[in-house]
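Record format v2
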Amino acid sequence: QKEVEQNSGPLSVPEGAIASLNCTYSDRGSQSFFWYRQYSGKSPELIMSIYSNGDKEDGRFTAQLNKASQYVSLLIRDSQPSDSATYLCAVTGANNLFFGTGTRLTVIP
Amino acid sequence: EPEVTQTPSHQVTQMGQEVILRCVPISNHLYFYWYRQILGQKVEFLVSFYNNEISEKSEIFDDQFSVERPDGSNFTLKIRSTKLEDSAMYFCARAPVEGGNYGYTFGSGTRLTVV
């Protein structure tokens, strides 16, 4: 069973701060990595994908991947109250995605 | 709004009853998946479906579960005899290629409550 580990939180940051979310995975063969945002009672929404080592930036979001350390992270700059949600790390397996339990982020106004 | 519509949004059923959850993808994507999420737990893979056949299924997807694409459009998940532990959010997802290397688009979900 492929494992994807996340700190469940809750992680609280003040509005305008940087939120840092981390994820480790067990399968060295994984090729693609994703961050999903999930509001309470809603479906996961894809916000970032990353496929190669290094950083990938999209607006206020930066995904970081280190395959040697089997580590993926998501930075959210200038955090907004609307960013309050659970963030799910997902990693490809043989033919599907494996998800972590998610980190609950609260941005305090 | 998600590009994948699921119905019903909420289903309450008695233990032992059959339920059918429906998914209507609005695209020509060929790869479909069912996932479930028990309250407070992780999103778990159930089954993948391509070209009207099951590609892969998890240990959760036992004989009580089945999937179909009966009319080439709707994609259904059937649970034959529901158990209390089947209570969860069920998500349909679609992908442009097999294996999820470009991520999935999830449907709006069906909350199943077994009483």
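The CA atoms of residues 24 and 36 of chain A lie 15 Å apart.
The two ends of chain A are 40 Å apart (CA to CA).
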